[in-house]
User: Which sequence fits this backbone?
């Protein structure tokens, strides 16, 4: 059994010059620091999937997808043991392109944990609440902890280049560290699920 946990960090917005790649690059670097973990950034701008239009649902397709980009996306997700989804909040919800990325495949998500990093109104909490319901239906396990970026971090990091100076995110570690418990829970859970999938 492979002991390396593969964490895919998904950038959930495709807008030009989107903010989400800034917290995504930051949480990617934090994840990379963990022993026994290999992280990879997945930017939805690199996977221009059509909005789901297939006659058979992914849950019934047996992992067979008609579109080549969807096939590539499915391969990346199948390779992952756990996921961190970085999402903005749009009108009390999350981006349609992110929903489409989730809906376009199915079994590749199954029995894997997912955590959320969000920003926007109320720290993106409402988008995360909706996403929790969606990923449960995909037979994923949403961890309890989430990272909601305070507006002051958003304003400071908005005009920074990628990768962002990690010091800009230090408010998430002081005086109470919200990052390590988040990663601890994701990685511990992913090890348990990986063992279960490998049986």
Assistant:
């Amino acid at each position: 059994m492979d002991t390396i946990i593969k964490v895919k960090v998904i950038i959930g917005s495709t807008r030009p010059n989107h903010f989400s790649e800034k917290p995504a690059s930051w949480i990617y670097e934090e994840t990379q620091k963990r022993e026994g973990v290999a992280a990879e950034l997945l930017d939805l701008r690199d996977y221009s999937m059509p909005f789901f239009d297939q006659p058979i649902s992914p849950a019934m397709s047996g992992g067979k997808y008609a579109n080549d980009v969807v096939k590539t996306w499915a391969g990346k997700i199948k390779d992952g043991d756990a996921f961190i989804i970085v999402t903005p909040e749009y009108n009390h919800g999350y981006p349609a392109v992110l929903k489409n990325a989730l809906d376009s495949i199915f079994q590749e998500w199954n029995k894997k944990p997912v955590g959320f990093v969000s920003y926007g109104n109320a720290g993106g909490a409402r988008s995360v609440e909706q996403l929790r319901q969606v990923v449960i239906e995909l037979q994923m396990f949403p961890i309890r902890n989430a990272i909601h970026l305070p507006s002051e971090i958003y304003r400071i990091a908005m005009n920074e280049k990628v990768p962002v100076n990690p010091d800009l995110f230090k408010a998430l570690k002081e005086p109470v560290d919200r990052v390590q418990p988040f990663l601890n829970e994701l990685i511990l859970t992913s090890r348990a699920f990986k063992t279960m999938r490998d049986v």
About this structure: The helical segments are 21-32, 68-79, 96-103, 125-137, 151-157, 179-198. The beta strands are 5-11, 37-43, 82-88, 113-119, 141-142, 147-148.
